[in-house]
Design brief:
With 139 residues, the protein is mainly α. It contains five helices and four strands.
């Protein structure tokens, strides 16, 4: 085998390997595997539970597969609000309201960020989501 033929064989093999790598990269970067933030519409990593850019987090949903409520989806945001409210009431009853304030504040800001009116206001004004004031600064 001549040197020219060997070089041509190596170049063709390298181009085939490069083409396969490009195809694999395109398949792995498809939009179907990416999570999109509902607040700022940026791409989120699959391991993020909430957007690190604007703080938006998806609403928990319960999807029924069988039974009388089959093919229905129930948003669990109301149930979360009830749980946070009960936690706040229990902490106030035992005299530890200051300990419950961060959880109540986080729940408030989370619901505000998910509100369509709030997101529309942010888009209209062209501002990013303001960071909530820390609970210690409010006292």
């Amino acid at each position: 085998m001549s040197t020219g033929a060997l070089i041509a064989l190596i170049v063709v093999a390298a181009l085939v390997i490069l083409g396969l790598l490009v195809l694999v990269a395109k398949r792995n970067a498809s939009a179907t595997q990416q999570k999109i933030c509902g607040g700022c519409r940026r791409v989120m990593l699959p391991v993020w539970t909430k957007c690190l850019f604007c703080g938006w987090s998806p609403v928990a949903k319960l999807q029924f597969i069988l039974g009388p409520m089959a093919n229905q989806v129930l948003a669990l945001s109301e149930e979360r609000w009830n749980a946070v409210a009960r936690y706040g009431e229990a902490m106030i009853a035992v005299g530890a309201a200051a300990d419950a304030l961060p959880a109540l504040e986080e729940a408030y800001w989370e619901s505000a960020r998910q509100s369509p009116a709030y997101r529309e206001w942010l888009e209209r004004t062209g501002t990013s989501a303001p960071a909530p004031a820390p609970a210690a600064a409010l006292r």
